Amino acid sequence: MDGDVARSQDPDVDVVVGVADVLAAQARLRRHLPATPLHYAERFGCWLKLENLQRTGSYKVRGALNALLAAHERGDTRTVITASAGNHAQGLAWAAYRLGVNAITVMPRGAPATKIAGVSHWGATVRLHGDSYDEAKAFACELARQNDYRLLSAFDDPDVIAGQGTVGLELAALAPDVVLVPIGGGGLASGVALALKSQGVRIIGAQVEGVDSMARALKGDERLIEPVASLADGVRVKEPGHLTRRLLAELLDDVVIVREAELRETLVRLALEEHVIAEGAGALALAAGRRVAGKRKCAVVSGGNLDAGVLATLLSEVRPRAPRRPRRRRREPTMTMSAQEPAIPSIRPTHSMTPPAKAARPRKIDEEVFA
User: Fold this and answer.
1) Residue pair 244/153 in contact by the 8 Å Cβ criterion
2) Strand runs (DSSP E) across the chain, as ranges?
3) N or C: which end of the chain has fewer CB within 10 A?
4) pLDDT tens-digit readout, 308-357
5) Number of Cβ atoms within 10 Å of the Cβ of 310
């Protein structure tokens, strides 16, 4: 692979995704989705790409909308079904509503109530099944096979990856040297890497300890281990994508594993110090950024769909450490004293010193003339 194109590892499917697909996605989405803002978090020393302010509160709407628009161009009008922990389901529901497409979302029973309500709001059918994303995915696959629905992966789909890559295209104007991206199945990281890697930008992935299936897969560990419970429910993926894994193996520079306590503290600091509400996965990249050096680094705040009860609990339980005070910048002296030149002691006035004599009153002109 030449660094800008990836093919699926599935021998039965020949799928290609590259930079041209990301540019095509940008052209499709420009009419529907405005660019999200950038914010400099001075106390973190990091730029933030605020995808929590995106439609439906997450970057996921980019990939879902691009997939539906691309399918419309191909003449595919089938009902779309997907499995999601919440954000992809909301993005698909919104896109289907805008385009008049029938959509079904399968979500785990433990999905946040905020995300379930968001999907229902846009008129998509919600099916709750299983206790994890992978169980919901298996059920969605079965429904798609039985009813000839179009199964849309939350991350392992070329149109979805291309849509997520538009985040990277919007970051190009910032000219970052490092971009940090949360990783679940790998769709966002793959798209951003496709968009920015040719510009010499380092792409760093972020995962949570015990929810690190992609990091292990990139090291050759193919075991399917059940992810632990985490605040970052949006990245709790047991099996990463095949297409995304192939892309990230070529384009990703490193993966940082974040502890759960670090993630909770970062989320609270974001809310209190930067006034940015992020969900667990949304604060993950910034939490990883504390271990990554860069002159102009940027973390993607991938989503902000956080339950109010969870936020209230975090604010009451987590006491973040005070950030270090910035070092004062001292100006260089304008003149330097010679090493052989003796220092002149400073004289401070004291109460015992006599005041200076009063100056003589100047005489008037007539006194000088007629003296």
Assistant:
1) no
2) 5-7, 16-18, 38-41, 46-50, 80-83, 103-107, 125-128, 150-151, 178-182, 202-208, 254-258, 297-301
3) C
4) 999 999 999 988 776 666 666 565 545 444 444 444 444 444 444 444 45
5) 16
- Domain locations along the chain: 5-58+157-317, 69-151
Cβ 83 vs Cβ 139: under 8 Å = yes
Model confidence over 93-149: pLDDT tens digits?
Answer: 999 999 999 999 999 998 888 889 889 999 999 999 998 888 999 999 999 999 999
Catalytic residues: 60, 302
Q: Model-level pTM greater than 0.90?
A: no
User: In this structure, which topology does domain 5-58+157-317 adopt according to CATH?
Assistant: Rossmann fold (3.40.50)
Q: Would you tell me which CATH number, out of the four given (3.20.20.370, 3.40.50.1100, 3.30.420.10, 3.90.79.10), belongs to the domain 69-151? A: 3.40.50.1100
Residue 98: C-alpha distances to residues 32, 35, 79, 178, 333 (Å) = 9, 18, 14, 35, 64
* Sign of the Cα pseudo-torsion (174, 175, 180, 185, in order): positive
More confident residue, 214 or 361: 214
Identify the sign of the CA torsion 334, 338, 339, 342. negative
> What pLDDT is attached to residue 112?
83
Q: Is 69-151 the same fold as 5-58+157-317?
A: yes
